[in-house]
Design a protein that fits this description.
The structure holds two protein chains of two kinds.
Chain A (H helix, E strand, L loop, with lengths): L17 H7 L7 H4 L46 H24 L2 H4 L2 H11 L2 H18 L3 H28 L3 H12 L1 H13 L5 H31 L3 H6 L1 H24 L1 H30 L3 H18 L5
Helix pairs in contact in A: 5-7, 5-13, 6-7, 6-9, 6-10, 7-12, 8-9, 9-13, 10-12, 10-13, 10-14, 12-13, 13-14
Chain B lengths: L2 E7 L5 H10 L4 E5 L2 E7 L1 E5 H8 L12 E5 L1 E4 L3 E5 L3
Classes of the chains: A mainly alpha, B alpha+beta.
GO molecular function, one term (chain B): hydrolase activity
Pfam families (chain B): MmoB_DmpM (PF02406)
Keywords (chain B): Hydrolase
Chain lengths: 331, 89
């Protein structure tokens, strides 16, 4: 018997959806990110306005003072859609799990100097309440913001913050016992060092404009908190005092911040480049929330740095300004 | 001059790589076959790490290329930043 192998190439009739093709031009193969983002926001056939906010449509771009001709101008440089996002985080979670295993199995937590351990518990565990606030805020931006390109990454950010709250809780449980969580809650509720930050978080809950909330949470607060706590304090100061194990336990936060800030910068840059009015509005918001965040974080930095807190914070603010200048917002 | 080529599986991982190669090598011809992209170029073809990173928004190790690589032809000149195919005369 004789068999002939023959290759047949099949030309696809079309490479992507029409609405995606209209945006990227021509019938080209589109990325999953483009297909999972463009024009997914529901826009038509809303007959009734929400009873809880009759001034606006259910999905309404005018909830924000930021004006965009096209809300799909935003682009997530990480190109996260559901698949890419979950894969990336699953990989990071594996790393985090093995870090926790490493620290636990070798008893590194028990080897930490007592004073250092106390500092870590006092500084890191109450931060889980901040992360919970960030979770709420990002869910709110996703709910009230407009356009999938802008809102989609916010719900990922929201989930990430929930994960961070859980990691911080585990750090507490690894270094101490269940009562460290109660102590941290008590500190968060009544310790003077935390009241400025708590006020900031609670005030952000009532910010109505989704883009202002984005600035207050993702740009200003995270933009100062993460470099200050996880880079300046944990990775530099505490590691030098024998707290390398702590740096391992918070590796996710350091990596995560490095990654998400690219997205935050891209978002700010796109909005600021759209119009002079947007730029002016962003400058006003960012300066306002940056100054508030800096004041709120100073007493928190003192927990670990005592006298060095002012200098460290000043450094972080300086870096923040440089970063935002690159994104087109002069502060 | 003779032709070099690189053939990659056509999937979500290679899309930004193909885009980067197309942008960096104006002489390249893209042939899209089912499940495969074959890129032919006269003389030489360069894959640049920086151009790929620009498109995926994360760090990229050029060795990751091999996961989706089907075949290539030409002498390889490889550094951390670039992979170049050409025929050493």
């Amino acid at each position: 018997m004789h068999i002939d192998l023959r290759t047949v190439s099949i030309k696809p009739l079309r490479h992507t959806f029409d609405h995606v093709a209209r945006r990227i031009g021509g019938d080209k193969p589109a990325s999953r990110y483009q297909e999972g983002t463009f024009d997914l926001q529901a826009t038509d056939n809303f007959h009734y306005r929400p009873t809880w906010d009759p001034q606006h449509d259910i999905f309404d771009a005018s909830r924000s003072a930021i004006r965009m001709a096209d809300w799909y101008a935003f682009k997530d440089p990480r190109q996260f859609y559901y698949g890419a996002y979950t894969l990336a985080r699953a990989k990071q979670q594996d790393t985090a799990e093995s870090n926790f295993d490493f620290v636990e199995s070798r008893g590194l937590a028990a080897d930490l100097p007592v004073e250092l351990r106390d500092t870590v518990l006092k500084l890191l565990v109450p931060l889980r309440h901040v992360a919970w606030g960030a979770n709420m805020n990002n869910a709110a931006i996703c709910a009230y913001g407009y356009g999938t390109a802008f809102t989609q990454p916010c719900i990922y950010q929201s989930m990430d913050q929930l994960g961070i709250a859980q990691y911080l809780t585990r750090v507490g449980l690894l270094l101490g016992d269940v009562e460290v969580l109660d102590d941290a809650k008590a500190a968060w509720m009544s310790d003077d060092a935390w009241q400025g930050l708590r006020r900031y978080v609670e005030d952000s809950f009532v910010v109505k404009d989704p883009f202002e909330l984005y600035v207050a949470q993702n740009v200003a607060l995270d933009g100062l908190l993460y470099p200050l706590v996880f880079e300046a304090i944990v990775d530099d100061v505490l590691a030098a005092k024998g707290g390398t194990a702590v740096a391992m336990l918070t590796q996710f936060m350091t990596d995560w911040y490095g990654e998400t800030k690219k997205w935050v910068d891209a978002t700010v840059k796109t909005a600021a480049a759209e119009s002079a009015a947007n730029k002016a509005q962003l400058e006003k918001w960012i300066a306002h929330w940056r100054d508030r965040a800096a004041v709120a974080l100073l007493p928190v930095a003192r927990i670990a740095l005592a006298g060095g807190a002012d200098a460290a914070l000043e450094d972080v603010v300086q870096q923040f300004n440089t970063r935002l200048a690159k994104a087109g917002v002069a502060l | 001059m003779s032709t070099v080529f690189i053939a990659l599986q056509a999937n979500e991982d290679t899309r930004p790589i193909v885009e980067a190669i197309t942008a960096d090598n104006p002489q390249a011809r893209i042939n899209e076959a089912p499940a495969m992209v074959k890129i032919d170029a006269e003389g030489r073809l360069t894959v640049r790490r920086a151009s790929i990173e620009e498109r995926i928004g994360r760090d990229f190790d050029l060795q990751e290329l091999h996961i989706n690589l089907i075949s290539l032809s030409g002498n390889i000149d490889e550094t951390d930043d670039e992979l170049t195919l050409s025929w050493h005369a």
